[in-house]
Amino acid sequence: DFDLQQINLSEMDPGIIKAWHIHHRQDDIWFVPPSHRMLVALKDIRPKSKTAGALMRFVMGGGRAQLVCIPRGVAHGAANVWNVPSIMLYLVNQQFSTDAKTNDELRLPWDQFGAGIWQQTKG
């Protein structure tokens, strides 16, 4: 049921955090090429979801080709915690709009769910 409306490319310099974003009408599909890496975090803030309140963080890219589908209502973000620029392609089923009536780009502070989410862990 994903009707592709727009493809975007985001390049992030080392140390950049792009979070948290929420959409009420839009679903995203993210892809980080295997030769790049991003730390990705998702927080389900949908009150009636089976996974309400769940937090996930994982690395995309890093030698693997992966897609992640982010449903509407799930807060999401990415960080480049490595020391080289990284890119992400993302596909959306709504076109971006700056019009207040149709804009679906809602934001929360980058540390809304704790600043530690965006730190690289070893182990």
Write structural notes for this entry:
This protein has 123 residues and is mainly β. It has no helices and 9 strands. The strands form 2 sheets. The chain has a 5-stranded antiparallel β-sheet with strand order 5-4-7-2-9, with no helix packed on it. The mean pLDDT is 94.
Keywords for this structure?
4-stranded antiparallel sheet, 5-stranded antiparallel sheet, 123 residues, 43% strand, 9 strands, mainly beta
Based on DSSP secondary structure assignment, what is the total number of beta strands? 9
What is the beta-strand fraction? 35-45%
Overall helicity: under 10%
Q: What's the N-to-C terminus distance? A: 38 Å
Strand order of the biggest β-sheet: 5-4-7-2-9
Spans where pLDDT lies below 50 across 5 or more residues:
none
Radius of gyration: 14 Å
The backbone outline, from C-alpha atoms, is globular
Given the helix and strand composition, which structural class is it? mainly beta
Number of helices: 0
One letter per element, helices H and strands E, the order comes to EEEEEEEEE
Kindly state the mean pLDDT as a whole number? Answer: 94
Q: What about the largest sheet? A: 5 strands, antiparallel
